[in-house]
Amino acid sequence: MRRPHALLLPYPAQGHIIPLLELAQSMHINHGFTVTFINTHFNHARLFSTFPPSQSTATNPSFNFVSIPDGMQPGDDHNDIAKLCNALKTFMPLSLEQLITKMNNQEHDKPTCFIADQGMGWALDVAKKTGLRSAVFAASSATTFTSVWNIPNLIEQGIINERDGSAKRPGQVFRLSPGTPPMNVDNLSWNCFLNSESNKIIFQYVYANNKAMKNVEYVIFNSFYEAEKEIFDYLNSSNMLHIGPLLSKQTSPVPFARCFWAEDKTCKAWLDKQRDDSVIYVAFGSLAMLDQIQFEELALGLELTGRPFLWVVRPDITGKISICLPEGFSDRIGDRGKVVEWSPQQEVLPHPALACFMSHCGWNSTIEGLSNGVPFLCWPYFADQHQNQTYVCDVWKTGLKVMHDENGLITKEEIRDKVEQLLGDGEIKKRALALKEIAIKSVEKGGSSFENFNTFATAFKHNV
Ligand code: UDP
């Protein structure tokens, strides 16, 4: 029997690469798969620029990184998601087919299966053409996946327009099925990009991916049953398996090239100096942006809380060349606040000094915070983040949302007041800790995610 060899293809964004890498590592370490991880040239260069290859599993012959072009032109903005989606679907299938064909012709270690990110559903047609079994990995919540999966129903029920996925009746609240939590049509992930033209292009991209996914062998989710019980009950399928939360502490015994920015390793020493349950951790993931006015207001809000904070300020967070904090801010804050470009978030969240997580509610941040029992202050930006916020605040009740004022600003007073309200609410913390226990149990031996992972990995090892 040949050793199983999985090819994994993430959608080319930080929030997809990280969980796919965790999946890949678990398949490699716990289930004996050889892995080839396929990045775009652009992202491959970014990942390895922050990490010396000599230190990473790039030197492990059974865990390989390769890259192919994403179809973007020199000078194109890789944060322009609509443009990126158009490039991916137009140019990447051929490069992927050429890569797999070349690998299929190898003497040894030919690929045996293919795992496509949900955001790269088109690649399933390439897998089929090149003779590989395939699965889809949902890097978003099962709820977001299901809303995409249900696009034909949403069109048929007159909830969205087939042309562009926009709401037929803006603000309409509906359920994906009776028994699943209510959802606002305006919060559907493809309706939450920056303008209606982007929404339309992205809707068409996800709709085409959806069609390509229809005959896939397995869909696996970075989620666990109790987090989205009603959705899993609704999907109720033996080939749709929750296997999460996938966290690096379970999968990564070795350092790994996984981030576009270098992780600031001084965070831990700073956190070690803070009192238990005292620190506000502020991070908005890899894509969310704030305009300069909102950015400064957030800084002033953190100052106004009077509490210690660890704040991730990505170099591109305001879209400007350089970051401009309010005048005198750093002097006034001194050692009470720590500002870093990128944190080792999965090491930060379990730290006992953490009191709460001010987050944009990307799915990874949501599931990571949840797995560490951390209460949330939700500040969603786009895509699926509004839906995830609904889960945190209305379904799990483990966080609060910050509200915009009549001018669209989240004011410093709102930030201070919500932090106080959140940290003063013992019930929220209690619920967060209870959910953490359930999340951890699900990936321990005998837990439902653990068992599902075995089912999936065993199935994909057969017929090799
Ligand atoms: N992350 C990190 N350090 C940071 C901020 C984020 O390591 O300072 C990681 C975080 O742990 C998560 C990912 O980046 O795994 C962000 O994914 P998410 O889905 O939360 O947001 P996105 O970047 O996709 O908007």
Describe this structure in words.
Keywords: Glycosyltransferase, Transferase. This is UDP-glucuronosyl/UDP-glucosyltransferase protein. It comes from Dioscorea alata (Purple yam). Its EC number is 2.4.1.324. The protein contains 18 helices and 15 strands. With 464 residues, it is an alpha/beta fold. The protein folds into 2 domains: 5-254 and 444-461, Rossmann fold (3-Layer(aba) Sandwich); 266-439, Rossmann fold (3-Layer(aba) Sandwich). A 7-stranded parallel β-sheet has the order 3-2-1-4-5-8-9.
Strand-helix topology:
Elements: E1 5-9, H1 14-31, E2 34-40, H2 41-49, E3 63-68, H3 81-104, E4 113-117, H4 123-129, E5 133-138, H5 142-149, H6 151-156, E6 173-174, E7 183-184, H7 196-212, E8 218-221, H8 229-235, E9 240-242, H9 248-251, H10 267-272, E10 279-283, H11 292-305, E11 309-312, H12 329-333, E12 337-340, H13 345-348, E13 354-359, H14 363-371, E14 376-378, H15 385-395, E15 399-401, H16 412-423, H17 426-443, H18 448-461
Parallel strand pairs: 1-2, 1-4, 2-3, 4-5, 5-8, 8-9, 10-11, 10-13, 11-12, 13-14, 14-15
Antiparallel strand pairs: 6-7
Helix pairs in contact: 3-4, 3-7, 11-16
Protein name: UDP-glucuronosyl/UDP-glucosyltransferase protein
EC number: 2.4.1.324
Enzyme class: transferase
